[in-house]
Structures are given as structure tokens and as C-alpha cells.
Amino acid sequence: MINRVGHLKQSQMINQGSFYTPEKFVRMAADWLKKRGLDSSYTIVDTSCGYGAFFQLSAYFPDNRFVGNDIDAAAVETAKQNFPFVRLFNTNALSHIARKAFRLNDDKICIVGNPPYNDVTSQIGRNVKTVRHEIDGDVRSRDLGISFLKSYMKLDADYVLVLHPLSYLIKKVNFSSAGFFFAHYKLLESIVFSSHEFADTSRAGEFPIVMALYEKTHSEGLSYHTVRQYRFQTVEGDRFRLADFDYVGDYIRKYPHRKRYNPEILFYTLRDINALKRSRTFITERCANAVDVDPQKLAYYCYIDLFKRYASVPYWMGNFDVPFHAGTFDRYREDFLNLACSFYPELFGRRTKPSKETERKVKRYIQGVCGRISANG
Ligand SMILES: C[S@@+](CC[C@H](N)C(=O)[O-])C[C@H]1O[C@@H](n2cnc3c(N)ncnc32)[C@H](O)[C@@H]1O
Fold this sequence. Notes:
The chain has 13 helices and 14 strands. By secondary structure, the protein is an alpha/beta fold. It has two domains: 235 residues, Rossmann fold (3-Layer(aba) Sandwich); 131 residues, no CATH class. It has a seven-stranded mixed β-sheet. It has a three-stranded antiparallel β-sheet with strand order 12-11-13, with no helix packed on it. A two-stranded antiparallel sheet has the order 8-9. A hairpin with a 5-residue loop joins strand 8 and strand 9. Helix 10 crosses helix 11. The longest helix is centred in the C-terminal third of the chain and has 21 residues. It is elongated and about 70 Å long. The structure holds S-adenosylmethionine. S-adenosylmethionine binds next to loops.
């Protein structure tokens, strides 16, 4: 198994996104490509190959040409020793993107790989010494992985089989940001798994990753509507569809805005469930991330606070908006208000003493929402 990055320090690993691919995913990738009839006329290309985990595909595709590249010279050296038959390059795959850089000419190409995915604007906060490599203007994005997806489109790949955060598909802003890619490709296969599958990733920051096979299309590419209706499956055997849930975010303001209310109640910016787990909910001081709460909508914010306290959700929901059950919400409105208020008497300007029954009802509602999550799975 080739998934260690022995020559890199932790900071380098974060900078370069060097968490290498477990072999079982390479096997699954081979099955998918076989199923789609990938024949020996295709050149299999990994533009961020690391030690070359994906060149293990050669066991299943012995007659294909393989091309590899990595910005890390030491990784390329190891890949060369592991897979001497691969034509290897040591260049920045995001700068001066062109087929000729990898001597691809008119080849039919299938891009494979596990490109780095990290938010290029957030590394300073993580105390990592950031090295910025040049990126062509037309593939630039705040996430390196999205830049890589765009680079595959620029290289005009017929098939793209990559691992990337599930958020690129399910979060609308990310989906739009990668629009240059999704507009030209359709999704053929996918499997969702936890970032914990990578040996060196931190326990705390678990998030869902998808391995997906895309095919270039000359008609319509992938739309966000299709993603919402798409039935995802996880390695654990859970199944889910975004469209099967109601989301409380569709009923309230999630980001700071200009409108002010009396009384002033502030809530922390709401991104997704993973962010909610890490952040505060109701806050007392105005800050750049403060959202002014419309008093008419207060029960929804109370529900989110209680969801954070009581819900137990699987990792694959990490990038979802907070789910709820719209049809029965009104029946529990007063219970959400009373219970949340008991945790913030100063903020709400009143002291409530919710009964045990209120607490039970709220927990049952949240379990019901989470039950739907398991039932969907
Ligand atoms: C997540 S690792 C994946 C390695 C390998 N694809 C695998 O599946 O095991 C990402 C690799 O991308 C490389 N990388 C990061 N930025 C790059 C760039 N701009 N051009 C080429 N390679 C890059 C890193 O050096 C690292 O080896």
C-alpha cells in the first residue's frame, strides 16, 4: 500500500494537501472504469500523483499509457521507483495548463487522482506557513481542489475519476465556483466516505469526501438540481438524497445583513453542520459574523441551538444545512422557544423554567429528524 508521505513535515502536508489514497479506492476506480469500457486507447493521467497510488491501476489496465506529475520532486522520485513505466513530470499542474506540458497531444485521456483540496485563503488561521504557487487566472479559486477540477476541463479529459470533498457538489457556492467543470461533465458513479480514511488527517476535522467518475458531455452538464435529486451512497452502506430533507436555512437569514430589529438578538453566521459544531449560536456582542435575528423567526434559531446540543448526525451530513421537519415545526414552536430561552436568560430578557415534558418533546422532535436521517440511510 502506498499511502505514506514519509518525507514531508506536517506543515508541508497541509500546504500541498498530501494525504495519499488508500488502495481500496483504486480498486473501486478500476471496477468503474472497466464497467464503462475504458480500453487501451486511453492515456491515464494523474497530474498530482504523489507516490503514484493511482498507478496501481496498471494492474487492471496493463496496456494503457500512464502519465504522472507532482509539484513535489521527492514524491515524483518515489513514484518513479514504484512505477518505472510511467512518464513522469515535476511541474505545477495549475500553471500554464496545456496538454503539451505533459506531451499529451491528441490522446484520449482519463484523468485520475486525489488532487490537493484545501482552502487557499484559510491556512494562515491554521498557523501553517503558506506557500502560494502560481495558478492560471481561468482556473483560480479559493480552493485548490476546485482549481484542479477546472484544470481537467482545460486539458479536455474524456473521463475524470477523482476524490474531492462532497461539499463541491452539495454546497451551492462551491458547486457554482466549480461551474466551469460541472457544466461540461456528467456524474457516472460515486461513493462517499469519511476523511478519516486518510491515515494522517485530524480526528476533529472529519468531513465527507466523494470519489466520483465524471464523463465529458457535449450536451448538458451536471446541474445543481440533478445533484439535489441524486441518490448518494456511502462506503458504510448509507444512502441519502439532499432533496429528501427540509432545511431550516431556507426559512431564515444565515449571513450578516443590514436589517436591525428591536430587541436586538444576534446569532453566529450559519454555514453548515460541521461549522455549527465548532461555532457559537446566540452571541451577545456584535462581530463581523453576527446575524441579526428577526424576532418573528426566533423559534428557528432556537431550534438550531437545540439541534447543536442534542442531535447526533453522521459525518456525511457535515456539509448539510441544518435539517428539520417543516410540516410539524409549528406544533413545537413554543417548546423550542422555552427550552432555548432557559439557556440564555440574559439574552432573551426573561427567565424560563421549561418542564421535563418540554425537554422530552424537543429531544423527540430532533431524534425524529435524525431518525429520518438513518431511515434515509
Ligand atoms: C492528496 S495528494 C494525493 C496524492 C496521490 N494523487 C494519491 O492519490 O495518493 C496531493 C498531491 O498533490 C500535489 N500537489 C499539490 N499542489 C500541486 C500542484 N500545483 N501541481 C502538482 N501537484 C501538486 C502534492 O504534492 C501531493 O502529492
